[in-house]
Amino acid sequence: MxxxxxxxxxxxxxxxxxxxxxxxxxxxxxxxELERAVGSASWLGPDATTFKTQWWPEHRAHLKTVADGxxxxxxxxxxxxxxxxxxxxx
Length: 90
Fold this sequence. Notes:
By secondary structure, the chain is mainly alpha-helical. The chain is 82% helix and 0% strand. The chain contains two helices and no strands.
């Protein structure tokens, strides 16, 4: 017989939720740092303009989507853990 339990462990799910939200916050911090670096770059010319006005904004948007997704996934985990506690009375 297997010793695997099929119930949710709210503490583990909460820890995962917090970890996902921490990762989202860290990624948002990296985005902010990169935004400053791109904005303060002294690189000039057509390639610089393309980088600053097209490439960076596109990549920033992708990174922001990932950060938002991680945050939402973490919130879902926290919500699920809370619901499980409410159902189980713990």
